[in-house]
């Protein structure tokens, strides 16, 4: 039987990659092609057409409408991606950040609690304070900014209310947007490099970037298997954002010298960023058949999967 998956934030960067990978998705543990039907929700009109996709335009803040959509589409799994993910915007606009990042989660959790629907929630690596690095699922989160706090608030509501959930904490996500520019640093970086312009990435921030293809396949696998709990989905390489960008630029045949150090700005209203929020992906390697990738392999997967789009 086809698996019915509802995705919030359908027009977003990660959602586009998951939707694209859902067509002809093969579960590696069985070698079987899985039939997946996607309902994507976003504020925007349909930005994408695909055989297995139904697009619904809705503002998730309209509670009654969201509840009606959930009831009518009756999904087996919800992948909850929609969020205000601009860290500084969240810091300056806490009320709306709370409504979108926590309030919407509550509505989805209530539906899952009533129906047994599985919830896959996208949290973040930035729930940690960055003092230690290589964080495991059991490590205690201490977010430095309001965005991280909203992610923890949602995690807690989910864990305390339902059983059938996965809380994914992805590292910095490297990939190309399927729809528009979206939240993709790689797209913005390639645009600058093509124009011969410098691109600034901090030497002071250490991450374990995960490519959007591996992440999307992991999420689809998690939609189909029974694992419950927290999972850190991260790449195999741990490096500064500056070294990451330099390696990407050189691999794509741009001069590495165009990548420069982005010094931390001390501006009022700018939320602090954690230094080292690299994640330990050993649990994900045990739970998932989808192989975790290093930076070079991740880039190869992104290039292979870009279809006929220019880089
Ligand atoms: N990208 C990363 O490196 C990264 C790393 C760790 C965790 N995450 C998490 O992963 C998830 C997906 O990230 P992403 O990069 O794909 O984010 P994104 O591109 O910003 O996608 C989020 C989508 O949700 C939509 N949305 C927000 N509020 C909505 C509302 N009230 N009603 C309907 N749609 C709404 C957004 O529309 P607007 O654009 O109009 O707001 C956007 O299309 C997020 O929860 C993020 O916090 C991302």
Strand content: 15-25%
Structure annotation, total helices: 10
Low-confidence residue ranges? none
Question: What small molecules are bound in this structure?
Answer: NADP nicotinamide-adenine-dinucleotide phosphate
CATH topology: Rossmann fold
Structural class: alpha/beta
Shape: globular
Tally of strands: 15
Q: Average pLDDT value?
A: 95
For the biggest β-sheet, the strand order reads 5-4-1-6-7-8-13
Instruction: Give the radius of gyration.
Output: 19 Å
Structure overview:
With 311 residues, this protein is α/β, with parallel strands linked by helices. It has one domain (3-181, 209-237, 277-296): 3-Layer(aba) Sandwich (Rossmann fold). The protein contains 10 helices and 15 strands. The radius of gyration is 19 Å and the shape is globular. It starts with a strand and ends in a 7-residue tail after the last helix. Bound molecules: NADP nicotinamide-adenine-dinucleotide phosphate.
Write a short abstract of this structure.
The chain has helices at residues 13-22, 63-73, 87-92, 94-115, 146-161, 185-194, 212-224, 241-251, 282-287, 295-304; strands at residues 3-8, 26-27, 32-33, 36-42, 53-57, 77-80, 118-122, 165-170, 173-174, 199-201, 206-207, 210-211, 229-233, 239-240, 259-261. It has a single domain (3-181, 209-237, 277-296), classed as NAD(P)-binding Rossmann-like Domain (Rossmann fold, 3-Layer(aba) Sandwich). The chain is of the alpha/beta class.
